[in-house]
Every structure is written in C-alpha cells, then in structure tokens.
Amino acid sequence: MGEDQQPQNKWGDPISAERQAELQGYLDGWAAETDHKGRAGPFHDARLTGADVFWLAERVRNANGWVPDLHLERADLIGAHLEGASLGRAHLEGANLRAAYLDENTSLAYVTLGPGFLGRWLDRLRFRNRYTALGDIKWHGVDLTAVPWERVDRLGDERAVGVFGETDFPEFFIPDRHRDAVRAYRQVATKLREQGMAEAADRFAYRAQIRQRSVLLRTFRLPQYLFSWILAIIAGYGYRPGRTLFWYLATIATFTFLYMQATTGWIPFGLPAPSQFAPLPWYEALILSVSSFHGRGFFQPVQSLGDPVAALAALEAVIGLFIEISFIATFTQRYFGAR
Q1: At what angle do helices 308-336 and 222-235 cross, to 10 degrees?
Q2: For the stretch 287-319, what's the b/e string if a residue is b when 16 or more beta carbons lie within 10 angstroms of its beta carbon?
Q3: Alpha carbon 92 to chain centroid distance?
Q4: Which of 161, 243, 118, 145 is nearest to 201 (CA)?
Q5: What does the pLDDT look like over 305-336, one tens digit per residue?
Q6: What is this structure's pTM?
Q7: CA-CA distance, 260 to 282, in Å (whole number)?
C-alpha cells in the first residue's frame, strides 16, 4: 500500500493487510464454529469502522450492487463514517450505530434493523432487544423511505438502560441513560415525519414518551411521573385513542349500573338515606350517566344534595372532566408539538 493510500476509517477507504486478515479471521472463526455460544453474528460486539464495512461489503456484493449476505449483527459501529455506504439488504440486528455519519448517498434500502414478527415476540418473552441503536446519528439527508420500518417497533438504544437485562443493573437507575433513549426515539421520529412516514414516526414518538416517564421516576419528579402514567393509561399519550374510548364506555356503563342500584335502595358512600328517585330503567340510567359524564352531573335537579344519585352524578362529572382534560392535553401534545 503506497503512501497515498494510508489506512483510514471512512467508507471506501482502504484498510491494511493486517486488518483484512483480522476481519477474515472473524469470518473464518464463525464458519468453523459449531456452537456460537449466543453470539448473533461473526462481528458480535466487534468494533468496526466505515472502511471495515466497505471491505466486507465488497467481498459479498452481487451483480445488482446489493450486499445481501453482509451480516453485522451486534457490531459496534459507533461513530462510523458511512457516507456513501451501500448497505442495501444488510443485516444490522442489534448493531450499534450511535453517532454514525450517513449522507444522501448512503443506501439503507431493505436493511434489516431487527428480528422478524415471531422473533419480536420471542424476544419480549425473553427480555431481549435485538434492534439497532440509532441515537445521535448524523443523517445528512439519508433516504429512509426504503427501510422496512414496519418491522421495527423499538430501538436498540433501550439496551443501555438495562430494560432487557443486557446491561449492568446499576445502569437501570441512571437518568442520563434513559434520556439518551428518549432522545434517540425523538430524533428518529422527527426524521421519519420529515420524509412522510407519520405512522412509523408516531410509533417511535410513543416509545419516547414511555422512556421519558422513566426519566421522571429516576429524577424523583413523582407528581409528573404519576400524571404521565395516568395519561398513558387513559389515552396512550394521544397515540392510543382506543384507550380513551374504552374508558369512556367503561365509565358510562359502570355509572349506569350504579344509578340503577342507587334508585332501588342501595346507599353508596355511607349516606344517611336512600335515593328520592323512583327506580330507573336501564335506558333512563344510561341517559343520566351520559349527561353526568359531560358535566351535567354538577347540576342535577334533585331535592337534596345528599341524595345518592346526586353524589354519584357529581363523582361521574369529576371523572368525566378529568378524562376529557387528559384527552385534550395528549392530543394537543401530539398534534401541536407541546411538551
């Protein structure tokens, strides 16, 4: 190798003969092993540069320019310069691309960033994360539209917080590790939304909210943590509207039943007297429940404020008001970017 071709670390740069032999040794060792002892690929946890990946890609490139057999599972590519890299159909399950450098000439078409459908569920049962870490990447205009994001519902950046038992236990309590995961999810969501992939972006934005809740807990901001937890249950931070519908219907149905019971002699909350209302059929109790949920419960026309029906109506009105406020807050945050 001449002086004008000194080994460098960017995609397309040459590597030394010694480094070539070292990388080939990884491949030969993998091929010779009958038991990989839990390793995901030949470069499991191996530190690779963009130049290393280029040399490996050139070895397996086919006539169409793809690199379908480039297996970099669990490879350490932190800060790797991959500008102009052609990684179409490469396997990056569990790899760490944090702070890597990409550009508009980097091809990620059909790259594999995580396990398949069955593998995803098996990994959850085994508390394992085989997704690619993508935090703090310098994207520089890379096209993400050909990446199969429907197969990616989490990021490998969560491994750093010990959520899946792959990190030292004390890391689980360090807020900065959780902040890094939050930032990674928000960065990826922003890039996807910029390129018109709102559905995938929403999925990552939702995961960012879940990890942000962990930050609140570990910084002892307990009121904010509890409120965040309630928002998650009621509306999924605006990304799970079906939850709000469930709680709406559940509240209406529950209080419909309670109104029917209260008007047939049941005395709730230890009140001193039964209800003055005549027994309500189910449809009248349903109408009363709907009107109470939407605020009318504060102003029910009853003769006594101590009437069990009045007490139940006021309670339902409070619950309904809280659910409506939570719904508005979460959707405002989602659609108008409020934090």
Answers
A1: 90
A2: ebbbbbbeebbeebebeeeebbbbbbbbbbbeb
A3: 19
A4: 145
A5: 778 888 898 899 999 988 888 878 777 766 66
A6: 0.83
A7: 7
